[in-house]
Amino acid sequence: MNLEIEKKSVNAIRILAADAVQKANSGHPGLPLGSAAMAYELWGHHMKHNPVDSKWENRDRFVLSAGHGSTLLYSLLHLFGYGLSLKDLSVFRQLDSRTPGHPEFGHTAGVEATTGPLGAGIGMAVGMAMAEAHLAAVFNKPEYPVVDHYTYVLGGDGCMMEGVSYEALSLAGTLGLGKLIVLYDSNRITIEGGTERAFTENVQRRMEAFGFQILTVEDGNDTLEIGRAIKAAKADQAHPSFITVKTQIGCGCPAKEGKASAHGEPLGADNVIALKRNLGWESMEPFHVPEEVYGHYRKLADAGINAQDAWEEMFGRYVDAYPQMKGLWDGYHNVHAAEKLYDSPGFWAYEDIPQATRNLSGILINRLKDQVPGLIGGAADLAPSTKTHMKDAGDFSRDDYAGRNLHFGVREMAMAAIGNGLALHGGLRPFVSTFFVFSDYTKPMARLSALMRLPVTYVFTHDSIGVGEDGPTHEPIEQLAMLRSIPGMHVFRPADATETAAAWFHAATSSSAPTALVLTRQNLPQLSGSSKEALKGAYVLEGSSKEEPDAILIASGSEVFLAVEAKKVLAEEGIDVCVVSMPSMDVFEQQSQEYKDSVLPMGIRKRVAIEALSDFGWGKYVGLDGATVTMNGFGASAPAEHLFERFGFTVENVVQTVKTVLQGSPQGAGGDGRERRRCAFPEMAATTAPVGMLVT
């Protein structure tokens, strides 16, 4: 081993990271300087990866949970030949560069996850390790370990303080994920100073209690010691491993080493020069790397190319020996597997009886599992309530990784992070579930789902004051507006069986967006006018009998039937309205303007929106001349039917609201004078008889 070239190769990471931050005059140089030796040893001598094919299925995964140290990762990707150039490094944190402030999945080759919110990367890494364990259990055969790789995650003190890491690592230990290796960059510094101010626990003992193998590297610059620890971690297949690597933040910079000021600000031009001199670097020019260092990294990268070649040769023999497994493999990796269900009568079939949409969702999950073999998921200790258990699919545990039912425990945020990791790994289509009010716990990770454009499905049940007796702590009010506000999140609140099937079809066929299904606890009637048009986000459920309606009722979920019933009463009084079901605002907004105008003609300004949640967001659709029947405060504890009456979700109140809106200006006035269009008729007229909401 040439110790001199290894030393230069480690220092090349430091130099590139420091220069990138200095050029941007923004960033976090401390972690890259302190963790450079750890990262070099892992990527150069232990991690299986191929710069030529960053998406190779059997590569080891590396997640930089401490995403603020992104220049560490960018330097590695440049030196190993992943396509990042010196120019890319020189425009770090600049508009449209491939080197944004925090790593972004799908934006830069070799970045396995979007990280930055501390601890989130650890949760996603646990999901990746679970995916590897499941796929290995399903596909591996004697002498054919076609799924056989490790998940490495590097986190710092901040990651260990965040609650999401506690949740995720506790579950990882319970599951015995032996191919998960956590590298803890323990430099004992945070933004405010030494960790003794707020973080004095024994992290190693905590990890030992979780069920991890505990290893410690006293000198974060000793690559031999780091290498021995990684080998020991890989040797223990019964437990995940936690390696504490004691480092110095800002290592190598005389004026900054070990100081909080090294964390989140450039070193300064003079200190960058001092760093290079202290490390014995041969040039003071920014972004200079000796050719011998590049040559060394090219040799290291060759090992990954050879590893993939050997795997592909083995996979070919595997397919010959087990041809039936090739079909299953393709099924797991087919992102279009569910599309055939559009024309499947069995998928859309339902009993014409009142049912809660959570129950209908449970039926659909069990239909999907046989058509989408990669469907995997569960709930935060709520599967019996959220109806997310897959029959005869087994329970994922340390004794049976082939099980498809996941048990997350009461860990909503980690559950969502793990769902992201399952999707990022590939080969699986995950769903996660909890009560809708607890979507607040999932929100930071759901936001990352949308940012990464991951097809994770969120099943949220008990969607309104229909929760009833549990009271306002369990009755969501503002959560739907919160979810709808996340860019790229598709939110469905279906009104009956057909719309629930449409919501699940959308979720199961999505390739670039997460979907949230917001479902009722109480039973709802089946609506004869509902249709696959729900896939467009909104549609005319019941049209007008006149050239144009006097008003439009818009509703989602359980309140659609309320709108239908109000229409009947209004018709008896000579007021003609059409009913629009809007299960998904965001999907509706993706439709053509022509279609949107056919559902909500711009000239018909007398509109009433009905939804047993916050009115936030409805202004766009009801305008200045409309009104809402919504919640403007918290709920209460009582049977659901009493709450709907108390808070105005009655036919009488909807009828009166429509009348009030119509009295606001002369009936039939064109408002802004633009041409008004008639609401399109649905294919079938609605004839559903009144059925009360039944809480089960």
TrEMBL record:
Recorded catalytic activity of this chain's protein? D-sedoheptulose 7-phosphate + D-glyceraldehyde 3-phosphate = aldehydo-D-ribose 5-phosphate + D-xylulose 5-phosphate
Q: Where is this site: Important for catalytic activity?
A: 28, 263
- Entry's Gene Ontology BP terms: pentose-phosphate shunt
Binding-site residues for Mg(2+), renumbered to this chain: 157, 187, 189
This enzyme's EC code(s) = 2.2.1.1
Q: Which cofactors does the annotated protein need, by name?
A: Ca(2+); Mg(2+); thiamine diphosphate; Mn(2+)
The record places domain Transketolase-like pyrimidine-binding at: 355-526
Q: Which residues bind thiamine diphosphate?
A: 68, 116-118, 158, 187, 263, 438
Q: Which InterPro entries match?
A: THDP-binding (IPR029061), Transketo_C/PFOR_II (IPR009014), Transketolase-like_C_2 (IPR055152), Transketolase-like_Pyr-bd (IPR005475), Transketolase_bac-like (IPR005478), Transketolase_BS (IPR020826), Transketolase_CS (IPR049557), Transketolase_fam (IPR033247)
* Alphabetic keyword roster: Calcium, Magnesium, Metal-binding, Thiamine pyrophosphate, Transferase
Per the Swiss-Prot or TrEMBL record, the active site comprises 412 (proton donor)
Listed GO CC annotations: cytosol
Cofactor note, please? Binds 1 Mg(2+) ion per subunit. Can also utilize other divalent metal cations, such as Ca(2+), Mn(2+) and Co(2+). Binds 1 thiamine pyrophosphate per subunit. During the reaction, the substrate forms a covalent intermediate with the cofactor.
User: What top-level branch of life does the organism fall under?
Assistant: Bacteria
User: Is Phosphoprotein found in the keyword set?
Assistant: no
Q: Where does substrate bind?
A: 28, 263, 358, 385, 462, 470, 474, 521
GO molecular function list: metal ion binding; transketolase activity
What NCBIfam families has UniProt attached to this entry? tktlase_bact (TIGR00232)
Role according to the record: Catalyzes the transfer of a two-carbon ketol group from a ketose donor to an aldose acceptor, via a covalent intermediate with the cofactor thiamine pyrophosphate.
What does the annotation say about its assembly with partners?
Answer: Homodimer.
As for family, the record states: Belongs to the transketolase family.
**The protein, known as:** Transketolase
Q: Which organism is it from?
A: Anaerotalea alkaliphila
